[in-house]
Amino acid sequence: MRNLSPGGWSGSYSLQKDAEVLKHKVAPGTVPRVIAFGRPYLGILSFFLALVVLDAAAGVVNPLIYRELINKGILAGNEGLVVRLALLAAAGSVVDSGLTFWQRQIAAKIGLEVVLDLRVKVFAHIQEMSLAFFTRARTGALVSRLNNDVSGVRDAFSNILSTTLGNLVTVVLVLAAMFSLSWRLTLATLILVPVFLLPARYVGRRIKALTRESYDRAADLNNLMVERFNVAGAMVSKVFGRPRDETRAFEQQAGRVRDISLKVGLYSRLLFIGLGLVASLAVSLVYGWGGLQAVRHALDVGTVVALISYLLRLYGPLTALSNLQVDVMTTLVSFERVFEVLDLKPMVAERADARPVPPGPARIEFDAVSFRYPSPNEVSLASLEAVSGPGRQAERTVLEDISFVAEPGQMVALVGPSGAGKTTLAQLVARLYDVTSGSLRVNGLDLRDATLESVRATVGMVMQDAHLFHDTVRSNLLYARPGASEAELAAALADAQVASVVAALPQGLDTVIGDRGHRLSGGERQRVAIARLLLKAPPVVILDEATAHLDSESERAIQEAFRSALRGRTSLVIAHRLSTVQNADQILVLDKGRIVERGRHAELLAAGRLYAHLYRTQFTEKPQA
């Protein structure tokens, strides 16, 4: 922190900060919240402050020892004093280095503790957000808040603690010592500070602009790699891509990143060289003017050496402090962006007096339910979506006046054209959304009054595009029921007609199945997802095109497994293939968010309306030759 080498001077951190941050108006209450956030660390912060003062004081003592060593030791010919003072200076340097290391370790620990605390809070809060939030927010923006913004808090927080605070104490003590030795020489050396700071600010702005551009270029390069290296992107690239053109495009973008990095390095080196030059000029001034005064006996030689030693400790901290306001504002802005996410209220929240869903076979009752997707302003942040204005208007109503009852153990089928609201209706039962009006009850309890944990335990889903994690088959199954035994895992796989497939994998249950389970076929992925549902064994089961990826033979096997697995459970089945719901206890036909027909298969077919039309389209109409 107190040398002028590129590796030891931290002033470049401040000079690379974006000065535009000063134009930002921090939200009211941010500063008190930051202070409140730091209260748990008050003890260690106080200890850290004491170390900073001790470290700065230790750094100020050594030049005074050098002064005495020269004046009363070397010039006086006192060999014993020279040895004693040299050893004392060496001990002081060891203490100074130890204190510097200690305070930086503590500053790093505080910064990392703050990051851990914030990151866990943000992650837990995002986990509580409704599904609507995730349909709006960009995944990359969420990851950025957890990584970049929270890390920005750490960097700025740690910098203010270890560098800025330490530099401030150092500058005060060094200047006090220099003025006490020679106020004239001290003022003369300070005249050179603006000579460096003015061009340094210009270079800092250039570094800032280039650094920002380098981030953008690196993001473009990362985006290209992510799009080409994930399974779906790689498949498209293999089928439609041109390898040589792809390589040239990558080379061009990588070349831009290289060029900008070279420019950043050039300006950074100029900055360090400029600082070293000004420090050298100041040293020359002290040697020249101070030397003349020493020759004229107006100043002793030891004082000249001490002043030079102080100069080497002054310019780096002084330059870093020139951007103290930027450092503080950057910290506040980083905190503000994190608080912005933490302040976003979940649309689906658990009430203080929430009760568990009553146990036992489930009875589902929709009573005049209407639903519209919430507006973006209700569920998300414009900064997470990168949109504003018309793109943030309220959504239209997608379900209107829905009323029906699914009795315990019944299978209720939801059919209708695309966009009719079938999936949305099923998602309300899982409380991925809350109804806009009306009431949705399970065993007599309005789901808005139920605990979220009990809803998750009550309802299980298998979606059309089943998602499996990049993990082992075992881990994907245990995600539904962490304490399941080997026998229970085997039974679930057998009931889902996928036991032989898993047994044939290289490591069986412990085989890693890749990104989104792409090492398995579509039908195999779907059956593993069904096994996961069967392992959970919830009272309510939702199947959203759960057999869509299965061939006819596998579908028949799964249907048979469902008949036994779903016995005694209430199920909602969404299907475009009407052959899968012909035996449903009740079929609801939805169109434009309303129930337009209801009944059993034979009744609806005889009515000759929308259901009959959908059925004839699938089974009787032949494509033209």
What labels describe this entry?
elongated, single chain, alpha/beta, ABC transporter transmembrane region fold, 625 residues, Rossmann fold
Describe the structure.
The protein is built from 23 helices and 10 strands. The strands form 2 sheets. Strands 6-7-8-3-9-10 form a 6-stranded mixed beta sheet, sandwiched between helices. It has a 4-stranded antiparallel beta sheet with strand order 2-1-4-5, covered by helices on one side. The chain has 2 domains: 332 residues, Up-down Bundle (ABC transporter transmembrane region fold); 178 residues, Rossmann fold (3-Layer(aba) Sandwich), CATH 3.40.50. The chain starts with 10 loop residues before the first helix and ends in a 6-residue tail after the last helix. It is α/β, with parallel strands linked by helices.
What kind of oligomer do you see?
Answer: single chain
* CATH homology superfamily of the largest domain: ABC transporter type 1, transmembrane domain
Give the end-to-end Cα distance, rounded to a whole number of Å.
82 Å
Helical content class: 55-70%
Mean pLDDT across all amino acids: 79
